[in-house]
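Honest question from a wet-lab person: if I give you the sequences of every part of a complex, can you actually get the arrangement of the whole thing, not just the pieces? Trying it with mine:
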Amino acid sequence: MSAENFLASLERWFQPGGELPEVGELRRAALERALALGVPTTKMERWRQSGVEKVFEHNYNLPKRDRLPMTPGRCQINGRATTAMHFSAGRIESAQPLQRLQDGVIAGSLRAALKEEPELVQRLLAERGLEKMGFFNAVNMAFFTDGFFLYVPKNVVLAKPIQVIHVLGEYRDALENLRNFVVLEEGAEATLLFCDHSSGREYGLANSVNQFQIGPNAGFKLYRVQNLSDEAACFHQDFFTQQENSRLFSHTIGFNGGLLRGEAHVDLQGKGADCEFVGLSLASRGQRMENFVKVEHQVPQCTSREVFKYIVDDYARGLFNGHVLVHPDAQKTEAYQHNSNIVLTDKAKMSSRPFLEIYADDVKCSHGSSVGQLDEEALFYMRQRGISEENARLLLLYAFAADVINQIDIEPLRRQLDDMVKKRLRGELPSCEDCVLSCSQPEFEVL
Amino acid sequence: MLLEIKNLCAGINGKEILKGVNLQINKGEVHAIMGPNGTGKSTLASIIAGRPGYDITNGDILLNGKSLLGMPPEQRAQEGIFLGFQYPVEIPGVSMSSFLRAAINETRRYRGQLPLGAVAFARRMKEKEEMVEIKAKMKNRSVNEGFSGGEKKKNEIFQLAMLEPEVAILDETDSGLDIDALRIVAGGVNKCKTAENATVVITHYQRLLEYIVPNYVHILYGGRVVKTGGRELSLELEEKGYDWIKAQVEGEE
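Yes, you can. This is the full assembly:
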């Protein structure tokens, strides 16, 4: 397979009036956009060192309707703390694909929403325009099969977090495109938990695009947990638009995955909007994990903070790209970017590129980055007290990760992820040999 | 004999620092090691504790007749060696209690004992706080993080009380302490003394020895123990300084 073959399959797969004819026109335009752009290469600044070339080595299969749905794994979190929705083989697995929750909240399958709320959803889909769409976004638009849809009306606070579980299919060379939409009207509040998993040891690519519209005074929290096999690739692109005085908190932990690439694009469009990004990536073996965050301060008095941490072991690679763009009108901007990393071996690699681009003159912006090994003096101190070298390393690594974990404000989720991080650091967290959703029993001791 | 150092020769990066150190320490004893700067006092402490990076070229260190030289630092600690650091290390994010619990329970496992549960551990913390009169107010804080110099040294003594080693080596524990802190630290060390353990105090000044009274005073100079005496030797040093020792040693050579 090659880039040309990939483009040829896009054309071959495309069926006008096939999946979701309601958006047929949009899909055709997106396909043309993708073909015109061509596949991204590592020569492009944004894709440098990304490993994207590997993605085009495969002969992909789109999910078919007749595939058996995955049996959802038992999850420690769902049921207790969240309302769970499962997606596998590119579709929601639910008898009731679109649910009407409290106070006019609509949540569930985008596919079902397109049928039941065609005007609203079609308007949202068309809103972002094609002219800025990147390649994988256009591919997603042309071929998405389903996605998660959430609409929270004005001043409604979603009672329980919703957990959206996506399990990449068990068939070879799967290409699954999910498109997720979240709309929070003025004063609305919601918390989502996105879990990305894979079910087998086959290669596959999950290519998700997520649009989040956060209205004035609205508050949105997005947690993301990624635990896929070393064979799997997972790209997600988040597009946030934020209106006046809205708040966004995005929290991501990458546990496992062959190629994890997260992009976040934030448009701060309303005065006083605030966003915060927190991330932890735990990469080992040949895994590659990348976070790309672009925050655009369009208007005055907005604030943004980014803290990303990586632990890179074996011959894995970590990449951080942070770009804060402060437009000329965006006076009184406060922006903070930080990336700190522990690289455990000579063969592991970390690339860190924090970047500020500022066109306003009355702003407070800072950025920083550090790459280091474990503190040898601290290791000796701990060992001198009788703690084995292995456990001393674990304690130090856990300490490095802990402040990310401690920012989770859903207690059962915090406990669960805390436990998973400890297991991951000990090398005990399997990368989805079975469904990882059920493999982790909480325990409370560090050692 | 509890700890025996036999003809220990060691160096770092090809530079010889210890040139045949001999020491014999019995249970129930307090030994002071004194000497001018750069004579190998801290090197000796580091080598006993197993700090990586030193080359041992000759000799041996025996604890209860067992050689420590082949053991990693954690095993030496589990066998009963405690080093009070001259510069205790800050470990952000690791809480005092998880640190000490890991230390105690790994040592217990090494000795074939059951781990200490959370309740027993809390009780022990409380007991030891009372015993050494050092409050581990840092219980939920990270190890040494943001502590003043005095707090760090007090924390070393609290750890000493919690871990109950057979041999406590205190490396310049008095440096940077004001007189009140010195009294508290020395009081803590004295309370940890039993007939079954031993204390080795490394210091420049005899001031600390007014509070922790040694049975033996050794003077380390040029990588060797050049003089051993009783308590009075430290007083003599206080009076005359180190020059007479230097002159004496150089005269012999």
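Two things worth pointing out. Residues 96-110 of chain B form the longest helix (15 residues). The longest strand of chain B covers residues 15-25.
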